[in-house]
Amino acid sequence: MTDESWEQSDSERLSALLNKREATHGDAHQTFTLASELITSLMIHKEGCDIQPHEFAVINILHKVARIISGSYTDDHWDDIEGYARLGKKLHKRLTEPGQGG
User: Fold this and answer.
1) What residue numbers bound the domain in which 71 lies?
2) What per-residue confidence (pLDDT) applies to 9?
3) Which contacts of 85-89 are long-range, i.e. CB under 8 A and separated by 24 or more positions?
4) What is the structure's pLDDT at 47?
5) Is 102 a member of any domain?
6) Distance (Å, rounded) from C-alpha 64 to C-alpha 51?
């Protein structure tokens, strides 16, 4: 396989992946715009304070919400939200327990 055909194969695989993702995640520009607006709102509310680990879980949830709004139905988005929520809850609880600095 020549370098040129290898690059073409990679390009074709990437194009196929992006087309598949657009079907479930929606138009990238629309999804990224909505996600950035949601995350910007969070950051404005935090007034420039550092993001805590549980808040990063919230950011991931917001990104999944943008995909749900912009894309088509897929269990994956909802399952990921459940996972991020469970992890965020655990991290937030740990942060606010006595002796943990919360």
Assistant:
1) 3-96
2) 86
3) 85/57, 85/61, 87/57, 88/54, 88/55, 88/57, 88/58, 88/61, 89/54
4) 87
5) no
6) 18
